[in-house]
Inverse folding.
């Protein structure tokens, strides 16, 4: 893709932005120019400082050093008042957050005009707003049912409302934070088509991403952040995937590959499981996991994966159906008995379900086996044994922390996940449930997770991998099933599937109910 | 513009320093209304210090007052650690006192070395059982325990009044609503001749050490901490969350019940409906001042007891109302809560953009 010429007007300039949080430098002397009509991809691993930088731009944070300059209505660059989202909006900067900021109980129209109306006004701004929006919609192709309540819209539609909200405020710079994280591949394609159209109309766009493919496909220019510093800023046309990946990570990457597996006997089965109601319900779910295989479960988030993981983890009893492990009925198992039957569970929300933040690393490593003789005697904790075990695990799993006694909450997301991995995989479980195991992790931590899962598979364990990342699923899984609105399709050999088919099934089209 | 930035881990010495600074700030703030009442702060505080520490009698009175506060403080601290919001220590205290009286006024006759433990056990059990109801309502039906424990206080107090004017009234009491006196064998022995201080203090200190040991060194304590800090993760890790809440509820109620036993069997000798001047509620303040640490509870209880006892004495000497004590305690709590903010956040002042530009 070729972008606008160098001479195009600069609409936004970040000049030497530095931001520290305590000891951590989130952004170090970052400078960036954005031209009119340009799509800039801000690429970096988690924790590279992308979101911090954009939050400074939008006034959520104040930079310790440096300034944001913005072209206020064509009069040249002037400094934007720091720490004021209001000022950012006034100067035509619109931001679409990763977690949408919409009022669920209001209509799309009301959400869009929210905050633009005068406090006291005799006339409603709705009619003129509707006219302006109709124009915007035809021009941009952002089709949204204006009168529908936000709670009734799909994730993709909500995102379009957010973009319209920015355009309605006459944004000339649009910032999108990880816009494809919640979309199906097809929805992502539509989004980028829209963004291209908007940029052709003169809108300057920054989107944050750590997905290389979409950066290559849809940006004019790439700025790469690593460790809070800008390490590259170059036209996308001069990049390739490998180069970007190495810039992002800072070293060469070895991709994890799956060798041909040799699945064994069925190990764990779900039969006709139904539970819950509404968005998170499961309907007649069947699943057979064999030993020595990775069974992938694909799906857009919020289609019942959470409930499925809770049922398998023993946290929620199914309303009907049976769960069995190695032929034994486990339908009434609870978390304790599930763990004791040789089951590792990697929770989807590792901060909420995976660790007790204020407790130490060693306590978090022992929490699932705290009643085992190795951790207690007569109800008294065996601290020295716990700490010795923790030291070994910290070494074996390369958990970066200030020793086994430091509180787990101080660790980064990747290291918290390593605590969970060490705790659950070290006892060599027979079955592993990994729910979104690499969500929010950087490339290094992700490849670590993948290696551990493949190692468990090689050992003969059965692994259930629930993920939204198709690349991850296709690389690791022997078979893949798709979950949509609580229905789980039958699993098919990965080699017989392609991204397009899976994408369609994730969107609920084409054989999602195939039994 | 003021900005708050999160701090990393905080050292113990820093926490202690901030707590002491908070207590000092409370005394300074309380000096302002004292000045309006025509008292010099120095004068008032030296009178208070004398009232709490000035003589052996004053000191033992202060310790006597601290005894129930340590126990109710522990009751709140252990429950709050598990995020079980027991606001009902006052009612549990009365339930414990009622049970102590029921057992200790002649229903059973046994030598002291048997009767005293039985009285204490009955009181602890009664307090624990009172807390069991709200705990089960919370775990089974999700009923808010703040409401149930708080309202149970009034129900129990009215029940105690009913008993004291009915079946348990002292026939020799000339119609006063009070229970029969505790048997001599059931009374907690005094620690010192001619002073009111009794063995309840030893029990309270032992309880503080016991709770400290429980939380720090045992599997149950581990589970209590895990449930309190992150119930979702605890449940995910297979910790029995409901059973843990039940254990904590029983323990918390039992500690408050013991406070009632001490007041009846160690101090008053009989039960009246004005046995406790709000020890159950003050226990919450004690626990908060102590940062929910069991050892801290002992010191916080001593601080609050010396304020109350000292203020009584100062009030007698100067004629200024002893409500001042409540004021100081409230100020101390506010100061400790505010200081918690400073422990967690660094406060930074940031100039306006214009001044930043000129500085460049």
């Amino acid at each position: 893709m070729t972008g606008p010429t160098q001479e195009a007007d600069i609409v936004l300039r970040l000049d030497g932005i530095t931001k520290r949080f305590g000891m951590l430098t989130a952004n170090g002397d970052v400078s960036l120019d954005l031209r009119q009509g340009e799509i800039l991809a801000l690429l970096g691993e988690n924790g590279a400082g992308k979101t911090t930088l954009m939050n400074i731009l939008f006034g959520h944070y104040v930079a310790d050093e440096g300034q944001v300059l913005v072209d206020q209505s064509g009069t040249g660059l002037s400094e934007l008042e720091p720490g004021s989202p209001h000022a950012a909006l006034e100067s035509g900067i619109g931001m679409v957050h990763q977690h949408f900021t919409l009022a669920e109980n209001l209509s799309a129209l009301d959400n869009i005009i929210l905050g633009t109306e005068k406090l006291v006004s005799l006339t409603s701004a709705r009619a003129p707003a509707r006219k302006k929006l109709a124009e915007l919609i035809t021009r941009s192709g952002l089709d949204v049912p204006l009168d529908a309540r936000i709670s009734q819209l799909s994730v993709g539609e909500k995102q379009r409302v957010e973009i319209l909200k920015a355009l309605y405020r006459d944004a000339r710079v649009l910032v999108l934070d990880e816009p494809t994280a919640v979309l199906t591949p097809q929805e992502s394609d539509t989004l980028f088509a829209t963004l291209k159209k908007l940029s052709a109309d003169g809108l300057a766009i920054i989107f944050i991403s750590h997905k290389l493919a979409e950066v290559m496909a849809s940006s004019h220019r790439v700025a790469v952040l690593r460790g809070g510093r800008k390490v590259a800023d170059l036209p996308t046309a001069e990049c390739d995937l490998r180069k970007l990946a190495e810039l992002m990570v800072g070293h060469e990457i070895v991709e994890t590959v799956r060798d041909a597996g040799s699945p064994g006997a069925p190990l764990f089965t779900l039969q006709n499981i139904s539970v819950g109601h509404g968005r998170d319900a499961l309907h007649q779910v069947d699943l057979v996991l064999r030993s020595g295989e990775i069974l992938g479960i694909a799906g857009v988030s919020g289609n019942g994966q959470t409930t499925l993981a809770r049922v398998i983890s023993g946290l929620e009893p199914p309303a009907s159906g049976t769960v069995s492990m190695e032929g034994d009925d486990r339908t009434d198992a609870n978390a304790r008995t599930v763990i004791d039957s040789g089951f590792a569970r990697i929770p989807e929300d590792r901060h909420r379900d995976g660790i007790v933040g204020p407790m130490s690393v060693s306590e978090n490593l022992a929490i699932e086996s705290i009643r085992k003789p190795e951790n207690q005697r007569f109800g008294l904790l065996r601290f020295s044994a716990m700490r010795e075990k923790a030291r070994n695990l910290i070494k074996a799993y390369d958990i970066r922390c200030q020793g086994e006694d430091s509180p787990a909450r101080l660790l980064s997301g990747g290291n918290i996940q390593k605590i969970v991995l060490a705790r659950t995989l070290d006892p060599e479980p027979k079955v592993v449930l990994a729910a979104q195991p690499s969500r929010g992790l950087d490339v290094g931590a992700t490849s670590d997770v993948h290696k551990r899962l493949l190692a468990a598979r090689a050992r003969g364990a059965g692994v259930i991998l629930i993920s939204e990342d198709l690349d991850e699923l296709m690389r690791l899984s022997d078979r893949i099933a798709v979950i949509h609105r609580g229905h789980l399709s039958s699993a098919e050999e990965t080699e017989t599937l392609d991204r397009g088919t899976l994408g369609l099934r994730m969107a609920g089209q084409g054989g999602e109910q195939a039994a | 513009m003021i900005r708050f930035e999160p701090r990393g881990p905080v050292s113990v010495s820093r926490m202690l320093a901030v707590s002491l600074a908070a207590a000092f700030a409370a005394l300074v703030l309380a000096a302002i209304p004292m000045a309006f009442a025509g008292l010099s702060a120095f004068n008032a505080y030296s009178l208070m210090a004398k009232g709490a520490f000035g003589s052996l009698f004053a000191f033992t009175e202060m310790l006597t007052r601290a005894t129930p506060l340590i126990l109710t403080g522990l009751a709140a601290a252990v429950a709050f650690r598990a995020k079980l919001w027991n606001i009902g220590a006052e009612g549990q205290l009365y339930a414990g006192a009622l049970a102590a009286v029921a057992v200790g006024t002649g229903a059973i006759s046994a030598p002291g070395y048997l009767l005293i433990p039985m009285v204490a056990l009955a009181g602890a059990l009664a307090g624990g059982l009172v807390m069991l109801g709200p705990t089960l309502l919370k775990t089974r039906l999700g009923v808010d325990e703040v409401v149930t424990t708080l309202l149970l206080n009034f129900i129990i107090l009215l029940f105690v009044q009913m008993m004291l004017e009915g079946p348990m009234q002292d026939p020799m009491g000339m119609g006063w609503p009070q229970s029969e006196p505790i048997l001599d064998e059931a009374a907690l022995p005094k620690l010192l001749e001619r002073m009111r201080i009794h063995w309840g203090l030893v029990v309270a200190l032992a309880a503080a050490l016991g709770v400290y040991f429980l939380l720090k060194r045992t599997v149950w304590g581990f589970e209590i901490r895990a449930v309190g800090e992150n119930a979702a993760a605890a449940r995910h890790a297979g910790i029995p969350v409901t059973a843990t809440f039940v254990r904590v509820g029983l323990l918390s109620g039992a500690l408050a019940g013991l406070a009632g036993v001490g007041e009846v069997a160690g101090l008053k000798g009989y039960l009246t409906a004005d046995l406790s001047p709000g020890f159950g509620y003050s226990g919450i303040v004690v626990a908060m001042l102590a940062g929910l640490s069991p050892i801290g509870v002992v010191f916080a209880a001593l601080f609050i007891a010396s304020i109350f006892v000292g203020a009584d004495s100062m009030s007698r000497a100067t004629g200024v109302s002893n409500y001042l004590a409540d004021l100081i305690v409230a100020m101390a709590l506010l100061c400790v809560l505010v200081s918690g903010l400073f422990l967690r956040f660094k406060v930074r002042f940031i100039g306006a953009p214009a001044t930043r530009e000129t500085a460049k």
